[in-house]
Write a structure and sequence with these properties.
The protein has about 200 residues and is of the alpha+beta class. The protein has a single domain, classed as Gcn5-related N-acetyltransferase (GNAT) (Aminopeptidase, 3-Layer(aba) Sandwich), CATH 3.40.630. Helix content is about 35%, strand content about 25%. It is built from six helices and seven strands. It has a seven-stranded mixed β-sheet, sandwiched between helices. Helix 1 crosses helix 3. It is globular.
Length: about 200
């Protein structure tokens, strides 16, 4: 089941986001300590109006390992998360994180690079619990993100994929994303891929 995130999803969602974004978490938070980055992102997930806010997230839940037939399984587990937002406000969504990173790092000119293009609905992060991979959950989150974009009136969904991640590139290509260029973010090279949505 896929649903909009709520602030209380933070303890389950943030570890999944951290696994997906790796060292970008350090850039977003202005710290060199991964555990500290996780705490900062947890706080921002619970707030409104920023890049990693619950407002920009979808949560995928599934029954625990023993399934819906387990008499002890009363609730589903959070096993996936997707973060997405309107590229035209990406800079504004980065500003609260950037201000916190300035305080944390002590660097007055600290700058978080903007990943999204203004013309697209940007799929920032898709992450599925490693124990649940291979079941189509990543595809489901991507499709749900595209549906959210369509419902909000967007005609393009963009994302970045690490240039060396051939498996992710193939998945996105199967889901109708096409490479439209390359981007450098924090010294790493990414493919910029776009899917044009049918109305």
């Amino acid at each position: 089941m896929i649903r909009p995130a709520v602030p209380s999803d933070a303890p389950k969602a943030i570890p999944l986001i951290l696994e997906a974004i790796g060292s970008i978490a350090l850039i977003l938070t202005g710290t060199s300590v991964p555990e500290e980055a996780g705490c900062v992102l947890d706080q921002f997930f619970r707030q409104n109006g920023n890049r990693v806010s619950y407002q920009n997230a979808l949560i995928l839940e599934d029954w625990p390992e023993h399934g819906a037939n387990d008499p002890l399984a009363h609730t589903r587990d959070v096993v996936g998360v997707a973060l997405m937002y309107d590229g035209s406000i990406a800079r504004r969504l980065d500003e609260p994180l950037e201000q916190a990173a300035i305080q944390k790092s002590g660097i007055s000119g600290y700058h978080i690079p903007t990943e999204a293009e203004p013309s697209e609905f940007y799929l920032d992060t898709v992450s599925v619990d490693p124990r649940c991979r291979g079941r189509g959950f990543g595809r489901d989150l991507i499709e749900a993100s595209c549906e959210r974009a369509r419902n909000l009136g967007h005609s393009r969904v963009g994302l970045l994929v690490d240039i060396v991640n051939a498996g992710a590139k193939r998945l996105y290509e199967r889901l109708e994303f096409q490479v439209e260029g390359r981007k450098q973010i924090a010294g790493e090279e990414y493919l910029h891929m776009v899917r044009h949505l049918q109305r």
